[in-house]
TrEMBL record:
Keyword list, A-Z: Membrane, Transmembrane, Transmembrane helix
GO molecular function: transmembrane transporter activity
KW Transmembrane helix (keyword) present: yes
Protein name listed in UniProt: ECF transporter S component
Pfam families on file: ECF_trnsprt
Residue spans crossing the bilayer: 32-52, 64-84, 129-148, 155-176, 196-218
UniProt superkingdom: Bacteria
Length: 237
């Protein structure tokens, strides 16, 4: 039962991704160029349901405070690097948060970081996509911890590197649906090819951040997590 509780958020996100893919077919049949609006609506509803599910779950006030703090730190880490081409420590911080605290916390840290950082960098229709993409990064890191609890630095570096591309690919969907006409497979491939070097920089930056700061950051968050744990001691009868 504990395993399935941990997997609830990841499974919900898989279902949402399925809806997004299904909406492509719906777009082809009914909506023409309006697929971007439908996809954005799905993501907004999904984010609202995820936050509602988190609020309804068994979460202590201390855990909420830590998640809010981590989301704010991840958001603040993005702002100083905004002038550099796609170097974002936010992704690295979100991944480690999810790995240490689990899929649900990883999603909340990632989505919160996207929302808070855009109060400084600019809100727009891209914000829900960023919240969703970083939330997925945090959730997937939590799933990695469930199945590979002893994942070492090399595994985490590769994982962080790959998410540089995955984050970019998710955001490319927003670019494709929001700015490209017509929505064809040719324009889809061209959009992804154009972002290849920026995604590569993001991936290399993630790996570098983990190489230099990953172990220390993990130890700090593990110490916080131990303080949040509640153990029931046996009582004498």
């Amino acid at each position: 039962m504990a395993f399935w509780r941990k997997m609830l958020f990841p499974l919900a996100l898989v279902f949402i991704l399925g809806l997004l893919l299904a909406s492509i077919k719906i777009n082809a049949l009914l909506l023409g160029q309006g697929w971007g609006l439908l996809a954005l609506l799905i993501i907004i509803i999904a984010l609202a349901l995820m936050y509602w599910g988190f609020e309804q779950g068994r979460v202590s006030s201390r855990e909420v405070a830590v998640i809010a703090m981590l989301g704010t730190i991840a958001a603040a880490g993005r702002v100083p690097f905004a002038g550099l081409p796609n170097i974002q420590p936010t992704t690295f911080m979100v991944i480690i948060s999810g790995f240490v605290f689990g899929p649900r916390a990883g999603f909340m840290v990632g989505s919160t970081a996207g929302l808070v950082s855009n109060f400084f960098l600019g809100q727009g229709p891209w914000t829900p996509w960023q919240m969703f993409a970083w939330g997925l990064a945090g959730t997937s890191a939590g799933v990695l911890k469930i199945f590979f609890p002893r994942a070492g630095n090399k595994v985490m570096m590769v994982f962080s590197f790959l998410w540089g591309y995955l984050f970019g690919w998710i955001m490319n969907l927003w670019t494709w649906t929001g700015f490209i006409h017509p929505l064809t497979w040719q324009s889809f491939v061209a959009t992804y090819a154009a972002s290849f070097w920026l995604d590569t920089i993001h991936a290399l930056g993630n790996a570098a951040f983990y190489l230099f700061f990953g172990s220390s950051f993990v130890k700090i968050l593990q110490r916080f997590r131990r303080r949040l744990e509640v153990r029931l001691l046996p009582t004498d009868s």
